[in-house]
Design a protein that fits this description.
single chain, alpha/beta, Rossmann fold, 9-stranded mixed β-sheet, two-stranded antiparallel ribbon, 11 strands, 39% helix, Alpha/beta hydrolase domain-containing protein 4
Length: 328
């Protein structure tokens, strides 16, 4: 009986999420179609005569970018497997207890499978990834299958390097930190999505309204459409993606799969742009120091500041290529 109640609750939350997703997508003026590509929730603009571009999300959403980018591209944007309405198959990888490499391969292979089913693996396409999506983008095709990449744009990408986290020494002075670190390690995979479905709807809306204020205010809706969408993402019961993400991080060691060892041998023959905000928590100096890209861009006060650009025409081309992307 308890299982039946949970299953009914989960099914209801998914239907609610689909409803508010459709309201969010109504902000896009360009015609888009929604499909399910082997479990991947997919949205695409309809003009197939334009070159394709694939957008991989981080914590943000791409809705405000589609109309601009659709002037130059056929835009595809997806829910990464385990997030949003991209539901893994029943026999898929269980992220708990898996190695970080297994999680990475799981996401990379899901993108490769999506490209195969859509036919994009046979075409040249541009690839844009934000935050975690930037990590997957660089790993999925930029390092593994670069031949089909026309252009790679990474927005505040995670995983270019590890984090500098001081290790805790096991001595008397640090015993409280040792206990704290032990507890964090013990409950590291206990993601908020496990308990948020148990919180009352109004209380959860209030919590998210305070913590995601920038996201909610970035859209033109006068009602709670954006807030309801975020709330039902967290109440949907689909926790595979968030749990998998915790397997790539360690509270005492930081990012477990830094790309720096592989980037030493990365010599792409396509354009690579890495973009950061002027108050970005990711360190832009790493990309500069290792000469990882053709262009490094810093967004400042909602404008674009080009750190390295050879000409005005090149700057205009670059601004067109990333489309004034806003992920808040």
């Amino acid at each position: 009986m308890r299982f039946f109640k949970f299953a009914f609750h989960n099914d209801y939350q998914l239907k609610q999420l689909e409803f508010f997703e459709s309201k969010i997508m109504s902000a896009i003026k360009t015609k888009i179609i929604k499909t399910n590509v082997n479990g991947i929730n997919t949205f695409s603009t309809t003009d197939a005569t334009k070159p394709p571009i694939l957008l991989l999300h981080g914590a943000g959403i791409w809705v405000k970018n589609v109309d601009f980018l659709s002037q130059y591209y056929q835009v595809h944007f997806i829910d990464i497997l385990g997030f949003g309405l991209s539901k893994p198959k029943k026999n898929c990888l269980n992220p708990l207890g898996k190695r970080p490499q297994d999680i990475q391969n799981w996401w990379v292979e899901s993108i490769e499978d999506w490209l195969k089913h859509t036919g994009l693996e046979k075409k040249k396409f541009s690839l844009v990834g934000h935050s975690m999506g930037g990590f997957i983008a660089r790993m999925s095709y930029a390092l593994k299958n670069p031949k089909n990449i026309e252009k790679l744009v990474l927005l505040s990408p995670i995983g270019l390097n590890g984090f500098n986290v001081d290790k805790i020494e096991k001595n008397y002075e640090n015993r409280k930190l040792i206990i704290k670190n032990f507890l964090i390690q013990k409950f590291w995979n206990f993601t908020p999505q496990r308990i948020l479905p148990l919180i009352g709807l109004e209380r959860l809306k209030l919590m998210i309204a305070k913590t995601r204020r920038g996201v909610v205010s970035a859209f033109p809706f006068k009602d709670d459409t954006v807030l309801d969408y975020i709330v039902h993402i967290n109440r949907s019961g689909l926790i595979t993606g968030p749990v998998a993400f915790t397997r790539l991080l360690n509270p005492s060691e930081g990012w477990l799969l830094p790309l720096s060892p592989k980037l030493k041998y990365f010599n792409p023959d396509f354009e690579v742009s890495i973009c950061y905000g002027d108050r970005d928590w990711m360190d832009a100096t790493y990309a500069e120091a290792f000469d990882l890209c053709n262009k490094i861009i810093c967004q400042e006060n909602m404008g674009i500041k080009i750190k390295s650009c050879e000409s005005l025409e090149e700057m205009n081309h670059l601004k067109r290529s990333i489309g004034g992307i806003s992920i808040s």
